[in-house]
Write the structure tokens for this entry.
Amino acid sequence: MLLDGQVAIVTGASVGLGRSMAMAMARSGARVTLASPQKNLLEETAGEINARYGAKRAIAVVTDITKPADCARVVQETLKAFGDLSVLVNNARREQRGPGLPVEGNNFPFWESNPEIWVEAVNVNVSGIFLMSRAVAPHLIKRKWGRIINISTSLDTMQRKHNSPYGVTKAAVDAASLIWAADLEGTGVTCNILIPGGMVDTDGTRPPTPERRTLPVDVMDDAVIWFASPQSNGHNGERFVGSRWRKDVPPHQAAVEAREAPVLRKPDPRP
């Protein structure tokens, strides 16, 4: 599943899941723009990709996805560096953490939640993916082929006690993805949802316990490579689980087994 010729923007690419997916796509032949506000980590990741997989394989663009001008600049810098753009991975997120909070973060009854973290999470996790997708979509539509891949979460996370704002924002991501998929129907561009399928210890603060297992940081790598390739043609408005992706079967079979029904059902077409 080589991605030769594909050019991707990956948000939140400086650490964790985003970094792993960006590395995997570059390893498979894609050229990648890494977007994040974390300048040093972003440049470190780009340097590692270029050292491993060839010069000018990746560029780092310091980005705040809540700012429309930054989103437009990421697209411009990508086209300037690589001459094309075919894939957007909306991975950046604002977790429920912040100064003065316990390790589990802002997990309180909603009326006790830190309002600043609540609003920041909505701005990054919902408005940010809209602004990035809005900046990328016209180019993808013009070239008549492209991918928007939105990283979401499990259904139980969306409705778990004390899990707002994070669960709230990811439910919004699912809704947006299904609406955008319908908007894009017939353009050659698709919008799909990808989730890890469990807790990922991306920063070393959530190790496994007897009651809770954690997933490896590369849990979505194989799925995102498939998404970014022509092998995923025809899949639009669907939801896939990274932890269900099997490495011992052909990609099309792995995709069938990893596919999950969208959290939001389409209306019954009957009158």
